[in-house]
Fold this protein.
Amino acid sequence: MRGIDEPDEGELTVSAPKKWATGAPAVAHALKYALEQTSPRRTALTLLNVNQTRGFDCPGCAWPDPGPGERHANEYCENGAKHTADEATTRRVTREFFQEHTVAELGRASDYWLNQQGRLTEPMVLREGSEHYEPIGWDAALDLLAGELRDLDHPDEALFYTSGRLANEPAFLLQLFARAFGTNNLPDCSNMCHESSGSALNETLGIGKGSVSLDDLYDADLVFVVGQNPGTNHPRMLSALEETKRRGGQVVAVNPLPEAGLLRFKHPQKVRGIVGRGTDIADQFLQIRPGGDLALFQALNLLLLEAEDKEPGTVLDQEFIDAHTAGFDAFAERTRTLTSWDEVLDATGLTRDEIEQVHARVLRSRGIIVCWAMGLTQHKHGVPTIREIVNFLLLRGNIGRHGAGVCPVRGHSNVQGDRTMGIWERVPQPFLDALEREFRFTPPTAHGLDSVDSIRAMRDGRAKVFVGVAGNFVRATPDSDATERAMRNCRLTVHISTKLNRSHAVCGRTALILPTLGRSDRDVQAGGEQFMTVEDSMSEVHTTRGRLAPASPHLLSEVSIITRLARKVLGPASGIPWEEFEADYDTVRDRISRVVPGFEDFNERVRRPGGFRLPNPVNDKVFRTPSGKAVFSVNDFTALTAPEGHLVLQTLRSHDQWNTIPYAMDDRYRGIKGGRRVVLVNPADLDGLGIADGSMVDLVGVWTDGVERRADGFRVVSYPTTTGSAAAYYPETNVLVPLDSVADISNTPTSKGVIVRLEPARAGADRSAV
């Protein structure tokens, strides 16, 4: 294994982007990584249990599983297999490791190196003034944390952050503890990815979730995949789209980069995917400019209105509009009078003919689904863009019927479930009222801090204790330098984690690492072996049961950590039976069933194979908006353009990566091997900028605050991106995303719309982890 100061990157090579995804190479790469992490027996045990009805949920993405009788014995994708192997690794981080390496040394290590050290094995503390973490017992660690929380001047000086790895039961208990303690400061990873989706859907449809199921997707006539790369981020979605195509549906891909998985998919579990050509997925590819999606859907909506004018009663679903929507007249007037084709074509980079072709597909399709991910949500106008998509679907009644609807595709396994369980800084009052009835205390009603506002609060000294439950907050957030300074301003930083990451090296005056069980680990409590539950992107709730012996006898489950902390902070006077919750998770689910709508008879229903689906009132044409109807909205926008000599940068994942952690230095589908510090730029832009393919540059961010944000030492790769734009991997380029550059309404960082210029690389520049 490489030493801490050895570069991960070898000789970087670039080849042509792939024209198809998956097939036999995906199987080979997954198995190779798994066998590097652990034994053949352990690999088989994990892979045969992942995403099975009696097994554990993949810790990766939130794509739903087929029904119990429809699952393959190998119900996982390449990245899911790697993510599972990464957690099941037999590598260990012990107290001797921390004796050997100072925190400063760990801070210079790469994300890849830190992750490759293996599973954490016992609680560790970094005391004020010390250079090394040292062991600490569980009682002492929780006493230290409890003491700091009790010593705060106000509960709002504490932050409780979660990522989507947290299952429903510990998520419910965490929010219960935070609110019993007295704060709604429950930021989570949704704030940085799909918050724009929730904001737009709550406003227009009355619920911040998608409305479709896998069966809807299979039977749709037309599926839009917008601002999303399923081949890397949700590979099992490709098998669902293949089924859509098999049943006669069509797919339109909208993205600034051509993505191999949306061009052609070779199903690794079918003969045609191994020896055959596979399936062409996208019937039409719209290579749109970053941020141009709102203009595209406004143009499609204008074409639908004009088509209805020509043939009244044949295009729009006027009966649905009259009975179930509000705001149509204002929307139609704005669309007819203010949509300019010159502005649309300039914002999108598309031709009118391309848009007319899509319009023709729409007219031939009864059932339409629009899927999207962060390519839409992480823009300043992300919320208006999604509202415009809702307008598009409402016009032809594509809400609340089979084979149609909205489909935000979540990127982390239980991020949607965490929000359902109350991990939300702005949770609605009915949820708080239900907590009060069930637990007999009055929760705070003032809205808490989201992720971006939490960074600001730490920076300004208004938040003093940070508790991160799962995740890698420092590397997931924008403006890396500002985030790190803010974290170091805390009195205490605490991370409940399975593996080492950079957040552990960015410490407050005192820091704790509290190691926890992984998804694949058995969880045995006083009441016997336990299971937990998760909710996927399509509102299916099912069990997850670990099958492996824990990585260390010193690990506690997240439920145990939260309940023991709550007992120390709140004491018996709280009247909440924390010890009972730790012993038997059924008791937690009983309480959830009485607090969270849709979870009635939770324990009984979730034990059925495959679990159950939460009701979505939208599918019954019930809209919990103030008017009681779905809302047409009016959405203005300013096209995202870069000044002369600059480009619009979007951050993205490589193929061999999950969230902030790379599993290798390669991006197989984009033809990148041996390095991550690359910037993909259209050859026409390189000519215009006078920059040679293969040259070394620094990326310099441009923002109104006048602060220079710089990412040093990137190799330029000539690539078929949209002209005027560029792409580079995160978290390496998160340093360029200004903390105050956020989406309107949702406060989501604008990681897909960063204005940069490329400068010749400075000699001897620091190319460390950040």
Summary: DSSP finds 31 helices and 33 strands in the chain. The CA atoms of residues 299 and 720 lie 25 Å apart. The radius of gyration is 25 Å.
